[in-house]
Amino acid sequence: MQLDLNFVRAQFPAFTSPVLSSHAFFENAGGSYPCQQVVDRLTRFYRDRKVQPYGPYPGAQAGGAEMDEARTRLAAMMGVAGEEVSFGPSTSANTYVLAQAARKWLAHSGGAIVVTNQDHEANSGVWRRLAEDGIEVREWQVDPDTGSLEMSSLAALLADGMVKLVCFPHCSNVIAEINDVAAICAMAKDGGARTVVDGVSYAPHGFPDIPALGCDVYLFSAYKTYGPHQGIMVLREAFGMELPGQAHFFNHGTLYKRHTPAGPDHAQIAACAGMADYIDALAAQHGVTGDAAARNRGVHDLMRAQEVAVIQPLLDYLSARNDVRLLGPRDGAKRAPTVAVELNRAAEPVSEELGRNGIACWAGDFYAVRPLQALGIDLEKGVLRMSAVHYTSAGEVAQLIAALDRVL
To answer: From CA 87, how far away is CA 99, in angstroms rounded?
Structure first.
């Protein structure tokens, strides 16, 4: 079965926007377009429910019910309990709060943590700063040629049984290789360690099946998964209740409140139910049936098949050039369709010129300073990044390749 791209693109107002539709959009890794279902729910909330939720009157009841709906439906999609889904202002903020809980947990129980130099800084810096309190931080380093994380290197870090927490990305936002999360989590568990997965750069390509991955925490951003600007944290109950609570003491008994000290953004949480609406609409259009988790898995596979097919010509084109260095695998099936390249010149002026040629993308370090340094890339030059998702068309990729030919 193939993804019905016409149906997909009809779900996104951006493709008929006179402002946005002028360019082929390849800045999806910075934030995807919101789907119509999210836009409708957010608009309705601000129009009809913008009061303190859960109060004893109609607007408050409706607002609270929609917030609960978002949590319940997203949890069902990902195969977890509703209590295990927390919302926060961003993934960076959620990870920061989680790290403060882990700081106390590790100080009490002892043990080391593992971080990688493949991560976006949000899932690296906050964990590294635990060293200030005497907690041992071990670095799982990428191969400096390929950017890959090798399982044998992790095994060596876990060998003495001292590691209590392993923090790593589902995929990097510049290298884009899809890590074997299930295998990594199994190895960590065998070594007595919990796992925290940064899914920000993977979740736009299909919402996770958490039980299949086996992680204790999975973090991603709604604004990169066709929704509003919220961070979403899946925190498994056993670990979440073991960690010291970070919110008001009277909220410690409720898991989805226990580690979210900031007040909830009622409207944006409610609008996140639109992401579930969108997945269900895709499932219905393509005949994908079953419970919420099964529908999510089916749509995930449709999204990935579309992305792999569409992005491969770009990977082939860049691999054949001798004036660029493609980061990550050349095989679209082994990576997210987030394509970063090192140029023989500063990357940002190239992204600006592409903008004048009808291509929306950007350049820089994308908060991935550590992986770029590990690969020997000059941060002053940065990398050019072109990122697609399932709504990207083959025609847009051809347009990008033609523009690259002119600009490079």
So the answer is: 16
Q: Please report the domains of the chain, with CATH numbers, ordered by start residue.
A: 7-33+311-407 (3.90.1150.10), 43-277 (3.40.640.10)
Instruction: In whole angstroms, give the CA distance from residue 254 to residue 126.
Output: 25
> Residue 7 is which amino acid?
F
| Distance from C-alpha of 339 to C-alpha of 326, rounded to nearest angstrom | 7
Which residue's entry shows tokens 């608009």? 43
Report the C-alpha gap between 144 and 169 in whole angstroms: 17
Query: Do residues 165 and 113 make contact, with C-beta atoms less than 8 angstroms apart?
Result: yes
Task: Round to whole Å and give the CA distance between 359 and 57.
Answer: 49
Q: What is the pTM for the complete model shown?
A: 0.97
3-state secondary structure of 209: coil
What angle, rounded to 10 degrees, do the helices at 273-285 and 36-44 form? 140
The tens place of each residue's pLDDT in the chain, 408 residues long, gives 899 999 999 999 999 999 999 999 999 999 999 999 999 999 999 999 999 999 999 999 999 999 999 999 999 999 999 999 999 999 999 999 999 999 999 998 889 999 999 999 999 999 999 999 999 999 999 999 999 999 999 999 999 999 999 999 999 999 999 999 999 999 999 999 999 999 999 999 999 999 999 999 999 999 999 999 999 999 999 999 999 999 999 999 999 999 999 889 999 999 999 999 999 999 999 999 999 999 999 999 999 999 999 999 999 999 999 999 999 999 999 999 999 999 999 999 999 999 999 999 999 999 999 999 999 999 999 999 999 999 999 999 999 999 999 999
Q: Please give the Cα distance from 226 to 15 (Å, whole number).
A: 13
